[in-house]
Design brief:
The complex is a heterodimer of chains A (about 110) and B (about 120).
Chain A (H helix, E strand, L loop, with lengths): L3 E4 L2 E4 L5 E7 L5 E7 L5 E7 L6 E2 L10 E5 L2 E6 L8 E8 L6 E3 L3 E5 L1
Parallel strand pairs in A: 2-11
Antiparallel strand pairs in A: 1-3, 3-8, 4-5, 4-9, 5-6, 7-8, 9-10, 9-11
Chain B lengths: L2 E3 L4 E5 L4 E3 L2 E3 L5 E8 L6 E7 L7 E2 L2 E6 L4 E6 L8 E9 L7 E3 L3 E6 L1
Parallel strand pairs in B: 2-12
Antiparallel strand pairs in B: 1-4, 3-9, 5-6, 5-10, 7-8, 8-9, 10-11, 10-12
The chains are: A mainly beta (about 110), B mainly beta (about 120).
Chain lengths: ~110, ~120
Amino acid sequence: SAVISQKPSRDICQRGTSLTIQCQVDSQVTMMFWYRQQPGQSLTLIATANQGSEATYESGFVIDKFPISRPNLTFSTLTVSNMSPEDSSIYLCSVDVYQNTEAFFGQGTRLTVV
Amino acid sequence: AQTVTQSQPEMSVQEAETVTLSCTYDTSESDYYLFWYKQPPSRQMILVIRQEAYKQQNATENRFSVNFQKAAKSFSLKISDSQLGDAAMYFCAYRSSWGGSEKLVFGKGTKLTVNP
């Protein structure tokens, strides 16, 4: 398994600003993912964070809006840029651990944009 | 593309009784994984149970068991002896086994209420 620390746990931000969410894992993981969960909705994958290279984005998500970094095997950041109220969601970091089929999740960041 | 459908937005059960949550999925693949995740109000996604598609035997984890019907593409979760702590959102999820670590595809979720 893996212990995932995601920060901040929640934040209230002004529209037009940016927020960076951090995801730290206690062990080396094979893959890191970022999901968005809009209010009352399911989880949707934003992108796969690749170590040492550009993230792989899902349809409907772009790097300018959601820049992602992964400088090493245990850490990644997701930035939500130029925020609008529509960006109010829970953002979750998820990781794959070697020889495990399931994904492990951080506790999520609840973002409110006002 | 794969899809996952949970047709029950909300379910309720009396404490100590049994409840079944439904999930169907659509895929053209023969090998994949299916999961049930629980999300309590704390937001933490917690794995409840997993099933490998190549295994005919239904997975069980203590009070939780699944009914996996591969031909029907059905994957229901049964919770026995329900407890107050089981109250949460439950998400059914699909993961392809092709190509290594693939993304999870989630259903819309079922909100489970446990009544004392």
